[in-house]
Structures are given as C-alpha cells and as structure tokens.
Amino acid sequence: MTTPHSASTSDISLEICGDDQEIAVIRLTRPAKRNALNDGLILALRNLLDGLPSSVRAAVIDGEGPHFCSGLDLSELKDRDAGQGLLHSRMWHAALERVQFGPVPVVAALHGAVVGGGLELASACHIRVADESTFYALPEGSRGIFVGGGGAVRIPRLIGTARMTDMMMTGRVYNAADGERIGMAQYLVPTGAAFEKALELAKRIAQNAPLTNYALMHALPRIAEQPADQGFLTEAMMAAIAQSAPEAKQRVRAFLDGKAAKVQKA
C-alpha cells in the first residue's frame, strides 16, 4: 500500500492509499474530545470529499483513538435564534449530503462511541463496520435539543422510527451486537478490527464499475422512496445507462469468455 498523497487539519486528516491511489482514508483527529463534531470539522469533511483526487474510487471514515465520534461538541454550542439555528442545521445537511451523495462510496469504521451527531455521520455512510466496542446512543432528548444533521431522516431508514423515538426519549444505548441486529451496521467484527475490515471492503468496492457504484449511491436510495411505478421506470433507465458503459461491456464479455470468476458459496 502506498500513501504519497496526504492532507490534514487539526480536526481531520486525509490519506490516499492503495496500489492505484484508489482509496481515501478520512480520519477524525480529535481523540481528546472523543472526536466530537464542531463546525470546522464538518466543513473540512465536506471540502475533503469535494476535493478528492480523480483516482479515488472509495473512502473509509474512521475516528482516531478509542471512539468513532461522540456527537456534537456541546462546548461549542452557540446561542442562536430560530433562523440562525435553521441555517446552521442546513449547513450540516449539505456537508453530510456529500458523504451520502458524494463522489465515491463511503465505508465507516465504527468503534467506541457512535453517539448523537456521530450516529448521524455514520448513517450517511453507505456501509458501516462496527467492532465489539461500539455503542450507539441519541442523547439529544436529555440535552433539550433535537437531531439536526440529517438523523431524523436517515436513522429511521436504518432502524425504524419507533426505535429512534425510544433512543431519544429514554436514552437507550445499544451495544455492538444489538446495533448490528437492528440495522445500525452491516458488519460486526472483533474489537480493534473495524478499520481493517472497512479498508478491505473499500478496496473491493473500488474494483466495481464506477457507474454501477454511482447508481447504487445516487439512484437506489431514491428508487426506494419512489412509488413502485416510478421506481420501476427509474430502475430501467439506470440499468440501460449502466450496461451501455464500455467498461460494463468489457466485464460482461470477460465473464462470457470464462475470464471472470463465478460467484461461489460463502
């Protein structure tokens, strides 16, 4: 693995790695604050995603130290009127939208605290790998605030509105195993192994045809929200576009010629 390209701020770092510089590793670097999110970090995350080199085909988001992200840095919470609060929330929406609907698929390597805004960030990622130290919580109810980074939309789509309501009303904390069971993460690995597994998955994703990855990121979640008749039409158009790409034609031909591996039982 080579890492000639790197960039960082005090709150977040970027490394480009892989034999073809195809993987971006984005790491929250506020371990003393359990990687709590402030506006500077959120804006830096957006800027990093917008400025990724063209060679990058997948990304991993990780947190330095024992925790992925403990949520909003309440020490930096400002007194805002309703209009200022609205605009602030919309700024976070725009930044996390670049995670979900950005240039490349994003895999989250979860460990320790995935709390509040940390869970909002994780829910914007496409694949979540949790290790056994992971725990999930939404303590906004006890703080007298409400989620503002897109969690009210994304988290119920993972675990359902009733479970999210319970978490916010009662302060319920889910451990790693129960979190994976209800849909917080797609993978559960031993403590300390989340980043390694996330990187493995990102390398596998990077081998896909870029247009197929784009369709999975941008079209599939929108199809899921459409009425069935509209979803079928969107699916048909996306399928036609994807299979018309030169790379798709080459990959299908390789399979038909026996040069591509067949799917095997796991």
Q: How would you portray this structure in words?
A:
Helix 1 packs parallel to helix 2 and helix 3 (117-124) packs across helix 5. This protein has helices at 39-50, 82-100, 117-124, 140-143, 151-159, 161-170, 176-182, 194-206, 210-225, 228-244, 246-256; strands at 5-8, 12-17, 23-28, 58-63, 106-110, 113-115, 127-131, 135-137, 174-175, 187-189. It has 266 residues and is α/β, with parallel strands linked by helices. The strands form two sheets. The chain has a seven-stranded mixed sheet with strand order 1-2-3-4-5-7-10, sandwiched between helices. Strands 6-8-9 form a three-stranded mixed sheet. It is globular, with a radius of gyration of 19 Å. The model is unreliable at 1-6 (pLDDT under 50).
What is this entry, summarized?
The chain is of the alpha/beta class and 266 residues long. The protein has helices at residues 39-50, 82-100, 117-124, 140-143, 151-159, 161-170, 176-182, 194-206, 210-225, 228-244, 246-256, and strands spanning 5-8, 12-17, 23-28, 58-63, 106-110, 113-115, 127-131, 135-137, 174-175, 187-189. Helix 5 (151-159) packs across helix 6 (161-170) and helix 9 runs antiparallel to helix 10.
